[in-house]
Design goal:
- The chain is mainly beta.
- The protein has one domain.
- It has a 5-stranded antiparallel β-sheet with strand order 4-3-2-1-5, with no helix packed on it.
- Strand 3 and strand 4 form a beta hairpin.
- The chain is globular.
- The chain starts with 10 loop residues before the first strand and ends in a 6-residue tail after the last strand.
Length: 69
């Protein structure tokens, strides 16, 4: 079982080319770690402007370098 690369609370960018809609753009926060269903760890992610969360595989995420002021 693979370990999770991103800790809860980290800001990430969704980077899967299959989902290019506006709802998948921008930064997401790692809400919690989910059990791996495949070879990649899964995460529950949430955008700050949305009331619902999403599930993403680790290979669909990248570290975000957004600076909040």
């Amino acid at each position: 079982m693979a370990t999770h690369l991103y800790p809860c609370g980290q800001i990430v960018t969704f980077s899967d080319k299959r989902f290019l809609g506006a709802s998948w753009s921008g930064d997401f926060v790692i809400v919690r770690h989910l059990p791996s269903g495949d070879e990649f760890p899964r995460y529950e992610i949430k955008s700050t402007g949305e009331v619902y969360s999403r599930v993403a595989y680790e290979n669909q995420l990248a570290t975000s370098f957004t600076i909040f002021r």
